[in-house]
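Here is one chain, start to finish.
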Amino acid sequence: MTYATAAPIYRAAGWVGVLPLPSGRKSPPPDGYTGETGAWPSDDDIAEWVTKKADGNLGLRLPDGVVGIDVDDYGSKKGADTLAELEARYGPLPATWSSTSRGDGPSRIHLFRCPEDLKLPGVPGTSIEAIQYHHRYCVVWPSVVEGRRYRWYTPD
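Its structure:
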């Protein structure tokens, strides 16, 4: 599976910000398609990337109204502890879809619907980052980085 195979699947499911990434890497995305003033890819952009960047990884620029909570919990990163502290203070997050290449552990990007004008702090806690349409993007299935394939996990 590659960008060329998966990009049409994501577009058909309603994801607009389907970005090609270099094969085996998380970055860089195409210039001008991320950040506050980034453009949203057109059908023509996707068609060109499917041809020219066919074997690449895939990144999703999240739409306004969806945020990702990226928890890193490996090596010296202890995002699961930080998330537990934040949930003890503010309440638990609901079960949701998540993306990771690190298996069933706590390292993953949890996706949530939110008000369209919500802007979270970029770093809500140690080893946790917010992914929002105006800041960052998600690396998702079928991407492979460091020999690990990204997968989607259901809320249950």
